[in-house]
Design brief:
- The protein is an all-alpha fold.
- It has 1 helix and no strands.
């Protein structure tokens, strides 16, 4: 039973790390897209 509990704790820890990684990647992607969006308006002005 201890092995099952320890395995569950390890799995939930890894899922928490993966969730943090996904949030970080999504934040970087949103920042890049926002920068592209703003720069498209700045370069369109004659």
């Amino acid at each position: 039973m201890k092995t099952v509990i320890n395995g569950y704790r390890g799995l939930s820890f890894l899922m928490g790390l993966n969730l943090d990684l996904l949030f970080m990647l999504a934040t970087i992607l949103v920042g890049l897209l926002a920068g592209t969006f703003v720069s498209s308006f700045l370069t369109a002005i004659p």
